[in-house]
Amino acid sequence: MAKSARKPGKWLILAIICGGVFISMMQNTTINLANPDIMKDFGASMTTVEWVLTANMLAYTSFIVLMGRLGDAVGRKKMFSLGLVGYMLGGFLAGIAPSIGFLIASSALQGLGASAMMPATTSLIAANFDKDERGGAMGAWGAVTGLAVVVGPLIGGALAKGGLGPALNALIGVSQGWRYIFFLSAFLGLVVLAFTLAVIPESKDESIRFRFDPVGVLLSAASLFLLTFGLINGAKHYGWLYRNEPFAIGSFVLDLGKWSPTPIFLALAIVLGAIFVVREGKKPTPLFDAALFKDRNFTGGTIVTAVLQFAMMGTFFLMPFFLKSVLGLDSFKAGLAMIPMAIAVMAVSPLAGMLSDKIGAKWVIFVGMLFMSFACFFIARLSPATTLGSLVLPFVLLGIGIGLPMSPSTSSALRDVPVEKVGGASGTLSMVRQIGAILGIALIATAFGTAMPGNMQKRVAAMTVPEARLERKFDRVKAMMLDGMQGSGSEMSSDMSQYNDRLALFFPNQADADEVAGTIKTAVLSGMSDSMNDAFRYAAIAPLLGAFAALFMGGKPGKKEDGEADGETDGEADGNVGPDPLAVQG
């Protein structure tokens, strides 16, 4: 198979692309660590501060399809560079934010920058690597993604706690550690941008005559915005069907009685999305091309990508919560505990990519999905007595399960996409990846919260104390706790200070009170652990769907697919005679 001309230094180009990926992924995994400090510094509520990350995710998801398609038309390097500029500028503005509203707007600007940057990363890999090399290149891309997710909390936790140290903080004049998280992303963005402009060649498809379609952009952005908003807030605030709290913006309050507004958001998202897809199907150069899904590799790779993100991000939501809330580790130590998983992802992803170049992606993905499912089932044995040593093996297995399918699913999905559509396909793939991640966090969090009341009540009901002399009073305490739960066991805390005054009334002797408090704490932590185990079992089911989807993907690299005649090159097989339109320019 003929190879299109590529400029030298493609591995340096890949390193620069991975730098952009690392910046975006790292910050999104760190900013939640700074929420308590942001709340304190701005006097804001937790609900308000949560919008720092929510605004970023909404901006990212809403415009990612448009940005991916623009890369094909105006240049993939241009979109990557513009994305870096937006991300860098947003990071700097967030670092100097004088108010919580300014910080939220700056974070949204970063999300918009990421929506331009991330689809361009996979498009640029396709532009600079031949088909039989893209698996290895995507392997490096996947390794950096896994590294950022685990290393991010280490860096962010250290910065949020102490900034750059007292001396440098005083020299710069910034004492609030969380601001350095944003300054770091701005600085790294500037470094990657400089290398991008100096090294990466431009690539685009000259055959595209892109016409801006404001109605299409509005429909897609509104649909994705409502979908993302509904998924995030359905789990956190409003409830899925029955109302937890009313929807309110300023003085406007939408009160539907006992019903949640979430189904309305999701229904509107589906309706607007359907109108968008039908409308785009009639356009010669659509923003979203449903015909891409006629390619079984693209369809299978997209499903696997969504499932992988669902299980991965749901797992990443649960594990730090267990390490911090049950085992009592701080953010930095919790990040250290997850390093075995990061090492496994980094080691396996490049190998999986190169292996998929040689034997095809199907079986690599299939085995990886099974590994991930088994690892989630294996992890679902958590308890307050769990040791960090006992988590090393399941974390390594989970890292293997993440690393094996991560790069082959992306490279296989884009393998046979016509060259003039690769940017739009990358945008679609990135959109699905993000929706899968949001779904994973929302539904796994819901599974955890739903299981909590029942598990907590079971553990509290089973509490006993060894001393018979305490049994009578202890039974009264237990009965009061069970009456007080009334289905709200998910709100119980392992902080025993909330029970101290009441325990002192029943147990004047401090030693007795401490013993009872310890029993209660063990029951609460066990209830949390049981609920996490239930959620992990749900998370383990999703990769099985990914394994099933992988079985329908295409054959080995280099194998002629239907409609490809002998002797055809990549470009000729797609009806493009002459130089490969994906080839870099200049």
Q: Could you name the key traits of this structure?
A:
mainly alpha, two-stranded antiparallel sheet, disordered N terminus, 586 residues
Shape: globular
Please indicate the percent range of residues in DSSP E strands (runs of 2 or more): under 5%
Structural class: mainly alpha
The order of strands across the largest sheet is: 1-2
Tally of contiguous helical segments = 21
Which ranges are low-confidence, i.e. pLDDT below 50, for 5 or more consecutive residues?
Answer: 1-7, 560-586
Global Rg: 25 Å
What letter string, H or E per element, gives the SSE order? HHHHHHHHHHEEHHHHHHHHHHH
Please state the average pLDDT score.
79
| Helix-residue proportion | over 70%
The N- to C-terminal Cα distance equals 24 Å
Major sheet characteristics: 2 strands, antiparallel
Query: Could you give the count of β-strands?
Result: 2
In short:
This protein has 586 residues and is mainly alpha-helical. It has 21 helices and 2 strands.
Overview of the molecule:
With 586 residues, the chain is mostly helical. The chain has helices spanning 10-30, 35-42, 46-49, 51-74, 76-95, 100-128, 134-162, 166-172, 178-199, 214-238, 262-280, 296-326, 331-337, 339-359, 362-379, 388-415, 422-461, 471-485, 500-506, 510-550, 570-573, and strands at 247-249, 252-254. The chain starts with 9 loop residues before the first helix and ends in a 13-residue tail after the last helix. The relative contact order is 0.13.
